[in-house]
UniProtKB/TrEMBL annotation:
InterPro entries: ATPase_BadF, ATPase_NBD, Euk-type_GlcNAc_Kinase. Keywords: Kinase, Transferase. This is N-acetylglucosamine kinase. Gene3D superfamilies: 3.30.420.40. Residues 5-251 form the ATPase BadF/BadG/BcrA/BcrD type domain. The keyword Kinase applies.
Length: 293
């Protein structure tokens, strides 16, 4: 029996799915972050580990990895030469690196028209109309990722320090955030020295939780990021009947906060990004799998 691998890697984790040549998933596994722009070497290590674990979960020998083709949808693959650098050092028989948005759209709407928004540690958007795809965002934490968990966490730390300095009014959220850092603003700054997007993103759920309780700072942050998300959706110029799928860890938290225009378009995704990677791998590599039997 021959296999294909689907890999979905972002700023927080990397997921792998091992499937048979007909697309039946027989093993899934998860490892650490796999943003190839922020940490190429670490991403490669986590990708291989997730693949190895997927083989073990499926009861298969990881020694088959060099004989298995893989589709990898990875954060950071949309800029520079990171995609090519990674493909050159992966152990799979064929390695095709795509953006995380590409596999997410494949999973969400299949081969038809529609749109998706990845709302997780980072953000990215893609729409397909009459067979043509358009991507928005995915430029990374430093200059992009508006509305992302990383930006929400970063904004929370900023507001916490502004409240500490008396520049902005504080709230229970900023008080609880400062307490995480032993009520020492210097510890907040020290945290940011080596923090990666996923580290900032870990604070995002706290903002949504406090917003539900009416926290003023939490709602101020979320009003801004919801506006950012809707601005990107607006730029996709969606048709009134186009399905819109929200993906990523923050998707269920964002959905009820969108305006009526976008809530009306929301449809559950056909599959997630990992499923999209598997579907793409089957479509592209089925002949390869048959040939190597």
């Amino acid at each position: 029996m021959n296999f294909v691998l689907g890999i979905d890697g972002g700023g927080t984790s990397c997921r792998a799915a091992l499937a048979t040549a007909d697309g039946t998933v027989i093993g899934r596994a998860k490892s650490g972050a796999a943003n190839i722009r922020t940490d190429l070497t670490g991403a490669r290590s986590n990708i291989v580990e997730a693949a190895r674990q997927a083989f073990l979960v499926a009861g298969q020998d990881p020694e088959l990895i060099p004989r298995t083709p893989a589709i990898l949808g990875l954060a950071g693959a949309n800029v520079g030469t990171y995609r090519q650098q990674l493909e050159a050092i992966l152990p799979f028989s064929i390695s095709r690196v795509e953006t995380d948005a590409e596999i997410a759209l494949e999973g969400a709407v299949g081969a038809g028209d529609g749109a998706m928004a990845i709302l997780g540690t980072g953000t990215a958007y893609m729409a397909r109309r009459q067979g043509k795809s358009r991507a928005i965002g995915g430029w990374g934490f430093q200059v992009g990722d508006q509305g992302s968990g990383a930006r929400i966490g970063r904004d929370l730390l900023e507001q916490t320090l502004l409240a500490y300095d008396g520049v902005r009014a504080g709230s229970p959220l900023t008080q609880s955030m400062l307490a995480v850092f032993r009520n020492n603003p210097e510890d907040v700054v020290e945290f940011t020295t080596n923090a990666k997007p996923g580290d900032f993103g870990g604070f995002a759920p706290k903002v949504f939780e406090h917003a539900e309780k009416g926290d003023s700072v939490a709602n101020w942050i979320l009003d801004r990021v919801v506006a950012d998300v809707e601005a990107s959706l607006g730029a996709l110029d969606l048709a009134d009947d186009a399905p819109l799928c929200l993906l990523g860890g923050l998707a269920p938290l964002y959905a009820p906060r969108l305006s009526a225009r976008y809530r009306a378009l929301l449809k559950p995704p056909l599959d997630d990004a990992l499923g999209g990677a598997v579907q793409m791998a089957v479509r592209l590599f089925a002949g390869h799998a048959e040939a190597t039997r």
